[in-house]
Specification:
Blueprint lengths: L3 H7 L12 H15 L7 E13 L10 E14 L3 E13 L23 E4 L4 E7 L10 E12 L5 E11 L6 E9 L5 E9 L13 H13 E12 L3 E15 L5 E16 L13 H4 L14 H6 L12 E7 L2 E7 L2 H6 L13 H19 L3 H4 L4 E3 L10 E2 L3 E2 L2 E7 L6 E9 L6 E11 L2 E12 L10 H10 L7 E15 L2 E14 L7 H5 L15 E13 L3 E11 L4 E12 L8 E9 L9 E3 L13 E3 L1 E10 L5 E13 L10 E10 L4 E10 L6 E6 L4
Parallel strand pairs: 3-14
Antiparallel strand pairs: 1-2, 1-12, 2-3, 4-5, 6-7, 7-8, 8-9, 9-10, 10-11, 11-12, 13-14, 15-18, 16-17, 18-19, 19-20, 20-21, 21-22, 22-23, 23-24, 24-25, 25-26, 26-27, 27-30, 28-29, 30-31, 31-32, 32-33, 33-34
Length: about 725
């Protein structure tokens, strides 16, 4: 498999010894390169079964153990013959998801796995990702681009009782290049055969079309994509018949990270397992579809098509069926030294396949998931020290992580513009230092702080020192993007604020799949602040532009601690929290929780939200619970009732499906003393709303139904990603 890039590498002068950590490493890699460049003449053909599984989830933190939102599996057989002919027969397909809105189904028109061994160029997912093939560390001239270091060794046993020693070689880019990998090679010490290869794609032009000329704008786009998308691979081989290292487990995994929208993370994984090998049977591959004249003669192809057939050739491939449920489908073409064919049974036959032997579950194997995370963590440690040009992660510069960082507006400060500057810590590649400064145009007050964040496999640690105007309500949306919009246009601010100066240490980690624990300790000074802002836009639109007064707090220096346990699945999200705030004179402890549940499967399902909490006797004002407002009882102003305990329930009833979805809603709640909570006046409100893009943006028209008069309220909210 020789691409133009690799041909160029082969023409360079021999690399100097700077590529190798020591003489032993050089000797091993040179043996492995020779083995990589020669074909195994003892392997003539093989047949095997395979199972392919694709899954993805939705999470909020890079290293969280995110539950799968959907999974799909395919099962079939593979037949390979030298020099490189391949036929894949897909016999069964099944899928499952946590929501009817998610339907996962994958179809490849090229082999998605590596049937024998990687060539001099590396791509995955049907030879499509990345667009620009990466240079293999064992390719001719690879030492021009990589450094090699022996890092570990291990002995494994075979079914025949043999002991085999494996040597691990750490591979890193030696200099910036358009498409490279960083990872670890596991080599058989005796034969120098590649037994396992774990790697991450990096590069200065990794996601650019190789046929296009690079520009500064293209390089900027590549950095953005590299920052958002991470792709890792783990190719593992098993010894068959005591002599052939054959594909055993191949995993392509990664994450799509969108930090600008509340740290949204989409982890994905494609896993292929091979077993039941039959080697050197002598059976010929029978292809169903004859190649056209344009592809039948390899010499008629373009020079680079032996490695990656041009898109125009792939577009001309014949496809029979695949358009109707009762039809089969064939995809085929030429590749390096041979041809391939993928045959899919008719859709009804795929679904009726009875050879699974088990049931499909969303989170299949905790041990396998843990192994994938360990590989990702190892690769992350390697990539963290690489130049930002290769990874897309800048080491310093102005940044923003959420939309509220750009737009913040509240009744104390009005508009609060600011800047955030971030640098990578010189002592640790996983640690970044962030400085933030903001100026309240309404109260003429400077706020901000310095935060040190260590985002590493296992947990996130945050040490923050700040001066900030904030709320202590655990259900408040103060300083959030949606609340800022509501304050700007409607003059509704669902938070009570106070000025704090303090220091906080926080740890965020996973207790299990989909279960997150956040703990923190802090010391802070809290002071009352007055309302200093109004909404001129609301005034211009016909409102008064005035906000309610901001209530005072119990002032002083306090110490405290907090914890929050939360879980989010496709249809259910819950949270349980507790905190304590106090000093030598007084203190308040609280316990609170929430549950949001989609009652039915489907896009137009009713949604139920429950909130509740209780404090110790005589709570400080800033620690009391509130009923009323968008987060508890719509139709009432924020904090219409306050007290030691509270509960609230919200029911949303979508009236149709679509991008624009009308919604009817009904809310109820109470707040008061713990002993007299249910004797307090019941707040009940309801109304109609218009939901856009599944609730990402929403407009609500509400009114009190009980204990609140007949005033209509209009509110804007942004949920989901923000």
């Amino acid at each position: 498999m020789i691409a133009p890039l690799v041909l160029l590498l082969a023409s360079v002068a021999p690399a100097d010894t700077g590529a190798y950590a020591d003489a032993a490493t050089r000797q091993l890699i040179e043996r492995a390169m020779a083995r990589h460049g020669s074909a195994d003449s003892s392997l003539l053909d093989y047949e095997a079964k395979f199972r392919y599984r694709l899954s993805f989830g939705l999470g909020r933190r890079r290293w969280a153990e995110v539950p799968n939102a959907a999974a799909e599996e395919q099962e079939g057989t593979v037949q390979w013959a030298a020099p490189n002919d391949l036929r894949v027969e897909i016999l069964g397909q099944r899928a499952a998801s946590r929501s009817r809105d998610i339907r996962l189904s994958s179809t490849f028109d090229q082999p998605w796995f590596v049937p024998r061994g990687l060539g001099d160029s590396i791509r995955v997912f049907g030879n499509e990702i990345p667009p620009r093939a990466a240079v293999h560390p064992l390719a001719a001239g690879g030492a021009e681009w990589y450094t090699y270091r022996l890092s570990d060794s291990v002995q494994i046993g075979t079914p025949e009782g043999r002991r085999i020693r494996l040597l691990a070689v750490e591979v890193r880019p030696r200099k910036n290049g358009p498409s490279q990998v960083a990872g670890r090679l596991w080599l058989d010490a005796g034969s120098a055969a590649l037994v396992r290869f774990t790697f991450r794609f990096v590069g200065t032009a990794l996601w650019l079309d190789p046929d296009d000329e690079e520009s500064s704008e293209d390089r900027r786009i590549n950095r953005i994509v590299s920052r958002i998308l991470t792709v890792d691979a783990d190719l593992e081989y098993a010894l068959q018949e005591g002599r052939h290292w054959m594909p055993y487990r191949q995993v392509v995994s990664g994450r799509v990270e969108v930090p600008w929208f509340g740290e949204l993370v989409v982890p994905f994984e494609a896993r292929t397992i091979f077993d039941d090998y039959v080697i050197n049977s002598g059976r010929q591959i029978v292809f169903r579809v004859p190649l056209p004249d344009s592809l039948a003669n390899p010499d008629s192809l373009d020079a680079d098509s032996s490695q990656d057939p041009p898109r125009r050739d792939r577009q001309r491939r014949h496809r029979s069926g695949g358009r109707e449920p009762g039809e089969a489908r064939d995809d085929w073409g030429r590749w390096s030294d041979g041809r391939y064919e993928i045959h899919r049974a008719p859709r009804d036959s795929l679904r009726a396949y009875a050879g699974w032997g088990d049931s499909l579950v969303l989170n299949e194997d905790p041990a396998a998931d843990r192994a994938v995370r360990e590989v990702q963590a190892d690769l992350e440690r390697m990539a963290a020290d690489l130049p930002p040009e290769l990874t897309g992660r800048p080491r310093h510069g102005f940044t923003w992580e959420r939309l509220p960082d750009l737009l913040r507006y509240n009744r104390i400060q009005g508009s609060v513009p600011g800047l955030i500057y971030q640098v990578q810590a010189p002592w640790d590649a996983f640690t970044r230092i962030k400085g933030e400064a903001r100026f309240g145009l309404g109260d003429q007050r400077v706020v901000g702080g310095i935060t040190v964040v260590r985002e590493a496999p296992g947990a996130r640690w945050t040490l923050a020192g700040w001066r900030e105007v904030q709320s202590s309500d655990p259900f408040s949306r103060g300083n959030g993007f949606g609340n800022s919009l509501n304050a700007i246009f409607v003059a509704h601010d669902d938070a009570d604020y106070h000025l704090t100066h303090g220091v906080r240490l926080t740890r965020e980690g996973s207790l299990g799949t989909g279960l997150e624990l956040t703990t923190s300790v802090f010391v802070e000074d809290q002071r009352s602040v007055r309302r200093d802002a109004r909404s001129p836009i609301n005034d211009f639109l016909g409102g008064s532009g005035r906000f309610p007064l901001n209530p005072p707090v119990t002032e002083g220096g306090f110490g405290g601690a907090a914890l929050r346990l939360e879980s989010a699945l496709a249809r259910t999200r819950w949270q349980l929290g507790a905190d304590v705030l106090g000093n030598s004179d007084q203190g308040t402890a609280r316990i609170f929780g929430s549950l949001d549940r989609q009652l039915l499967r489907g896009r137009a399902s009713p949604m139920l939200g429950l909130r509740a909490g209780i404090t110790t006797n005589d709570p400080m004002p800033q620690q009391a619970f509130r009923a009323g407002g968008m987060g508890t009882v719509r139709g009432f102003g924020y904090g219409a009732q306050r007290g030691q305990a509270f509960w609230a329930a919200q029911l949303d009833l979508p009236l149709s499906r679509g991008v624009l979805r009308p919604v009817a809603f009904l809310d109820a709640g109470q707040a008061g003393t713990a002993s007299g909570l249910f004797d307090a006046p019941l707040l009940a409100g309801g109304g109609l709303g218009l939901s856009v893009l599944g609730g990402l943006f929403r407009m609500d028209l509400s009114r009190p139904i009980k204990n609140g008069g007949d005033r209509l309220r209009f509110d804007l909210s942004v949920r989901g990603l923000f």
